[in-house]
Amino acid sequence: MRHIILALCASTLVYTSPLHSQTKTTTKEQAKPSAESRNTDFDYLLGDWEFAAKSREHGDYRGLWSAVRLAEGQILDEFRAVGDKGETYYVTSTLRNFNKTQNRWELIGADTGGGLQDFGTAQRVGAEMHIEQRFGVASPRPSMMKIRYYNIQPDRFSWTGDRSIDGGKTWDKASLQIEARRTGPPRVWGPLTRMQGTTGAPRVP
């Protein structure tokens, strides 16, 4: 179960290009409107979710997923796979931040003891979000995932991922699929540093 969950998050690299391929750099003048148009791309993920996952290798399981927007626009989410009695099988966090000079989102996944090596990139393609990311870089079985978020609606979204364990030479198509259903509203986390009398607690936008 741990190896397949490492391939999730919540769960990633631009869907049609290699992980370390060059991305067109925008000028300072181009960057501002691009950033303004892109900074809400992941807002659909904000809030609380329940999900059902289908893995070709490990069968069906379920979990919880929560995401909050930080005060400066970054997205922080927690992905938790749980058992029938609510026990946690695996939990990981991802920080998503828009890089306006590269005109893309960048992600870092972090599970306990794994460091900060699970890097990925993401871009919106039409009504979908496409992600490529490495997982389990510090583990004996690192992998790559090409992920699509699609059928994105206010109360649900679909997720499918192709997985490679040989550095992208071969891919297991749709090796993992997720259907998520909303259980809580979008939230924004106020500044962690705050003046006396203010709060950094989560709030509904």
User: Overall pLDDT, averaged?
Assistant: 81
What's the structural domain tally?
1
Biggest pleated-sheet summary: 10 strands, antiparallel, barrel
* Number of DSSP-assigned strands: 12
Strand content: over 45%
- The sequence of SSEs as H and E is HHEEEEEEEEEEEE
Distance between the termini: 35 Å
Computed CA radius of gyration, to the nearest angstrom = 17 Å
What percentage of residues falls in helices of 4 or more residues? under 10%
Strand order of the largest sheet: 1-2-3-4-5-6-7-8-9-10
Q: Estimate the global geometry from the Cα principal axes.
A: globular
Helical element count? 2
Given the helix and strand composition, which structural class is it? mainly beta
CATH superfamily: Calycin beta-barrel core domain
Question: How would you characterize the overall build of this protein?
Answer:
It is built from 2 helices and 12 strands; from the N terminus they run H-H-E-E-E-E-E-E-E-E-E-E-E-E. The chain is mainly β. It has a single domain (2-186), classed as Lipocalin (Beta Barrel), CATH 2.40.128. The strands form 2 sheets. Strands 1-2-3-4-5-6-7-8-9-10 form a 10-stranded antiparallel barrel. A two-stranded antiparallel sheet has the order 11-12. The longest helix has 11 residues, at 28-38. The radius of gyration is 17 Å and the shape is globular.
